[in-house]
Every structure is written in C-alpha cells, then in structure tokens.
Design brief:
- The protein has about 90 residues and is mainly α.
- It is rod-shaped and about 70 Å long.
Length: about 90
C-alpha cells in the first residue's frame, strides 16, 4: 500500500475544499486525493476544518515557546544575582 505524504498546509487545503463545498461528498474528496475516509476524519479532528484557526494555534504555540524561554532566562539571571550576593548588597 502506497502511503502519501501530505504537508500540514496541503491537508488544510484539502479540508478547506470540503468546507467550501467544492467537493460533492467526503467519499469523492477522498477518492480525488487517494486517501481513506478514516484519514480524512483523522485530519479533520487533528487539524480542524478552519485553516485560520490552525495558523492561530501555531502562532500561539510559538509565542508560548518564546515566553517560556524569556522566563527561563530571567529566572537564571535572578538566580545568578542572588547567588553572587548582589541582591543582599542592594538592599542595604
């Protein structure tokens, strides 16, 4: 059995095709792209049917990663300052 590899963007486009009612049915869409109905419904559950929603989720995940990195750096700086005695000297 041949396993097709679709990028997330391609999957979003396929799902959008069904949402825009460009395909007459799920069966026709699956035949067009040589995927099973199970794959279609798996993709729909995983990626959602709204591409903008998927893009927004990716954007939020990236922002969360950046904020976590900033927090880690800040905690490290605080730890370094407190271990060097700088915090104790500043309060005097």
């Amino acid at each position: 059995m041949k396993k097709n590899q679709f990028s997330p963007k391609q999957i979003q486009n396929i799902l959008q095709e069904m949402d825009a009612q460009e395909a007459p049915s799920v069966v026709a869409l699956c035949q067009k792209y040589s995927i099973s109905r199970q794959t279609y419904y798996y993709w729909r559950a995983k990626y959602g049917t709204d591409a903008t929603q998927t893009d927004r989720i990716r954007q939020l995940e990236l922002e969360t990663r950046e904020l976590r990195n900033m927090l880690i750096k800040q905690r490290f700086q605080i730890e370094m300052l407190s271990s060097s005695g700088f915090a104790a000297q500043a309060t005097r």
